[in-house]
């Protein structure tokens, strides 16, 4: 099924990545967003992650990617020799892709919520 440009299997994969990202300690980076093809580590049955914590963690990581891309762009514009144009463009594209994925997850969550509210009890 392809709804809104993304199929259910990819949504499930994104949710698994959100859960995996929420379980990571701070400061280890986000390989799930940096490498969306890689399979996230499976949670142990005794570990419980709240959905709100996973969502907040993922949103913080997307925000950090956008801030980093913006800072790299400013550094390049100011003439910093340590920042190349290709690094700025790649960082900007990574932040853009992460944001687009976040918007797609949000859209699916809103649709799921609306479907649940419209169910007959």
Automatic annotation (TrEMBL):
Give the UniProt keywords, A-Z: Bacterial flagellum, Cell projection, Cilium, Flagellum
Q: Where is this region: Disordered?
A: 31-50
Say where the protein is mainly found: other
Q: Which residues form a coiled coil?
A: none
- Record localization: Bacterial flagellum basal body
Its family? Belongs to the FliE family.
Query: Which HAMAP family does the entry mention?
Result: FliE
Q: Which NCBIfam families match?
A: fliE (TIGR00205)
Protein's recorded name: Flagellar hook-basal body complex protein FliE
- Organism whose genome encodes this protein: Methylophilus glucosoxydans
């Amino acid at each position: 099924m392809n709804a809104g440009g993304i199929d259910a299997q990819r949504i499930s994969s994104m949710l698994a990545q959100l859960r995996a990202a929420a379980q990571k300690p701070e400061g280890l980076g986000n390989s799930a967003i940096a490498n969306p093809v890689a399979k996230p580590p499976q949670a142990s049955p005794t570990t419980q992650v709240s959905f709100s914590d996973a969502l907040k963690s993922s949103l913080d990581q997307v925000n950090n990617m956008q801030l980093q891309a913006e800072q790299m762009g400013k550094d390049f514009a100011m003439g910093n020799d340590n920042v190349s144009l290709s690094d700025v463009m790649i960082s900007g594209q990574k932040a853009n892709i992460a944001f687009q994925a976040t918007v797609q997850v949000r859209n699916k969550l809103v649709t799921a919520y609306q479907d649940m509210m419209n169910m007959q009890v």
